[in-house]
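Appendix B. Chain record.
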Amino acid sequence: MENVRYTAKRLAEIVGATEKQVVATLGRKDGLGLGDLAVLREKLEKFPEPFPHRIQLFLNFKGGTGKTSISSSYAYRLAERGYRVLMIDLDSQGHATKCLGEEGSSFTRTLHDVLIRRVPIDEVTVKTGMPNLALVPANLAMSTIDLALMPLAGREFRLRNALEPVRAKYDFVVLDAPPSFGLLNLNALMAATDLVIPVLADFLSYDGLRLLFETIQGLEQDLSHQLENIFIVVNAYNQTYKIAREALDALKAHYAEYLLDSVVRQCTKFAQASSEGCPIFGYDWESKGANDIEAVQLEILERVRAAAQAADAAGA
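Structure tokens predicted for this chain:
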């Protein structure tokens, strides 16, 4: 992500300042980088509105739904807004790690060490190019984690417990999970406050959704864990396809309570950004993909805040 560049106009939009303030503070108008964004916030004291701590899991048991492109860009945009974010890559393929500009094979420790060897999560966390976006990387060492968890006591709660000591350090923890069901994803579900389910507008997505909701119901009954919010986001949507429109209508009919109004349209910029090791906001913030992730994030944050306020009012 070291190649990400901003104009003064764009930085002004991000922090809520004027272009004149940006130029006066940083001394130049173009070629501004991620470090300049952090400096600008500090000097102008432009910080985001406080938000209740969230652990947000991006998961679908069906593969190919584009959850890593969404989750990494989502985490990047939160950090761009000024929130303190920890991205955790749970997939042995390390795609979220690559999307944030890092190479998983270059790291000797991953979440495997945290969950199996009880290494403090701070010790496996690395910096990214974005100053307030940290990363727990993944590589092939993660591929045996389900087997390693099997004989351990409290195996379902290891991730939740590992995150507790760093809870105050981050506003958001974003988890990118592999498309499978096992003890690792069970740990992720038990740790999460919110679940974001990327789906494609096709009828095969229903199988993954059905199994996931059955699993969630089992967590509530057997392990007394209830997710605070569940969001379904339609990805790679192309309204010119009749099957896509029909699938979206079916989702609205059966999952209206969870389905976001915002959809992420089909956009080749995601693949291009991933190949550059950069989230879409750093690659092309004006693309329709970036605009759609922006809309998704704002809708999720609005719904989470509303749900928290409703819960506070009910408990008062």
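Further analysis of this model is presented in Appendix C.
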